[in-house]
Design goal:
The chain has 96 residues and is α+β, with helices and mostly antiparallel strands. The protein has a single domain, classed as Orthogonal Bundle (Arc Repressor Mutant, subunit A), CATH 1.10.10. A hairpin with a 2-residue loop joins strand 2 (64-69) and strand 3 (72-77). Helix 2 packs across helix 5. It is 68% helix and 15% strand. The protein contains 5 helices and 3 strands. Strands 1-3-2 form a 3-stranded antiparallel beta sheet.
Length: 96
């Protein structure tokens, strides 16, 4: 596969991962600051196993990373690219 096709496939996978409402909501929470699973559960009003499942998908897609802090894992966005993609998508959706 040439570089152009590989890039399109990777971008398509990124959008697939972000297409789930809960995953997008998690990313939105992480735009402001890193959060623990418990903080995400409380903010999203979603059960902990579901949040953990979606965090695994986001980690596998290399959109978030986890850091161990004391007795909890704290999740943050990998880089500013993720922040821009999501923020721009929300702005675009709000215009429509």
């Amino acid at each position: 596969m040439d570089d152009g096709k590989a890039a399109v496939a990777a971008a398509s996978e990124l959008f697939r991962v972000l297409s789930a409402d809960v995953r997008l909501a998690i990313v939105l929470q992480l735009l402001d600051s890193p959060r623990s699973v418990q903080q995400l559960v409380a903010a999203l009003d979603v059960r902990q196993p579901l949040v953990s499942q979606h965090l695994r998908v986001l980690r596998a897609a290399r959109l978030v990373v986890a850091e161990q802090r004391a007795r909890e894992r704290v999740y943050r966005l990998v880089d500013e690219h993720v922040r821009h993609i999501v923020a721009d998508a929300l702005l675009h959706a709000a215009e429509g």
